Amino acid sequence: MRVLDISEVVEQAGLRPSTLRYYEEIGLIKSIGRHGLRRQFAPKTLMQLSLIALGKSAGFSLDEIAGMFGEDGQPNLPRDDLKARADDLDKQIHDLTVLSKALRHVADCPAPSHMECPKFQKLLRVVKRYKRS
Fold this sequence. Notes:
mainly alpha; elongated
């Protein structure tokens, strides 16, 4: 089996050594030994790090991500959680798209003042309502 030195993992994953040490400390990844003081990793660690990055990008916490790996370090992705997160992301995308369009309208609005723009007034009401939820 090919063994990856921490420097190889850092370079290929684009992470700092301290991040790898932290991920190992909290059990997200495991080193398979040391060569002197340098940690050594199995090649599957790169796949695990990619999954961790994907999970973080999707908004999962490190604790939630940790629960997505089996005891053997292989992914065990809960499909219902993934679908729920995808639904959350779709809602965020929708909300941000609406906000973006409203801001573009207000930026180009011919009204003498933003406060005289009906769409701007609607945007303010929507934001007020959104903050309460």
